[in-house]
Amino acid sequence: MLKNVLANKPIHSITKFTTLDYQGHLASIFWFTKCNMACPYCYNPQIVRGKGEISLESALEFLKNRKGRLEAVVLSGGECTLFPHLESFCEAVKALDYKIKIDTNGTHPHVLKRLIEKKLVDYIALDYKAPKEYYSTLTHHAHFEDFEESLNYLIHSQFPFEVRTTLHSDFLTPKHLNAIINDLHVKGYCGIYYLQNYLHVSQTLGETKEQQNKFKISELSSIIPIELRNF
């Protein structure tokens, strides 16, 4: 990597240790700044709106110092695929013999394809924010087709990945989620669909309140396996 690339500061902060974010692996999380969406329940407004504080050089030095104690790195955000030098950074992380998981909204399918083809990522968590007809309303991002391209590619490439949705019951109803479940079934998704319960924090991107609407899990379709998180 060139020195001027290493000097870039795209990372807001580092979670030094987690056993939850990359199942089966001891990992750290690198929180990349900026996002091309504005989901109202997002609990990282400071990451989405703020500037990076940590350079790539410092992040790599952190990983060098934890060799033998950590197995993997989760690249999250924000939206890490917005960073123009992500491929070079992944190459440097791989050179240190770490596994890489990427959390993404899937709106940059060309980035994901290239990382997979070059074996620079080991696992992807793909956020299915909302069904097509409601997608731009919730995310303030109009290009559902980009996400869909990523989803179709991951399904047909048989790359290890999961699909997940964050549920805030004031924004998503069983009807919305059943539309997602049906779409995944039709597309041939064979993995577990993870439904993540919104956990309220005081500061969200849309100043979201705690969930008011009751949500009945029993109303969800069972045509694909579903696993609940944080319920």
UniProtKB/TrEMBL annotation:
Coiled coil: none annotated. Residues 19-231 form the Radical SAM core domain. This is Anaerobic ribonucleoside-triphosphate reductase activating protein. It holds the Pfam family Radical_SAM. Keywords: Iron, Iron-sulfur, Metal-binding, S-adenosyl-L-methionine. The keyword Aminoacyl-tRNA synthetase does not apply. SUPFAM superfamilies: Radical SAM enzymes (SSF102114). InterPro entries: Aldolase_TIM, NrdG2, Radical_SAM_PqqE_MftC-like, rSAM, rSAM_sf. PANTHER family: GLYCYL-RADICAL ENZYME ACTIVATING ENZYME MJ1227-RELATED, RADICAL SAM DOMAIN PROTEIN. It comes from Sulfurospirillum barnesii (strain ATCC 700032 / DSM 10660 / SES-3). Its cofactor is [4Fe-4S] cluster. One of its GO terms (molecular function) is catalytic activity. It comes from the Bacteria.
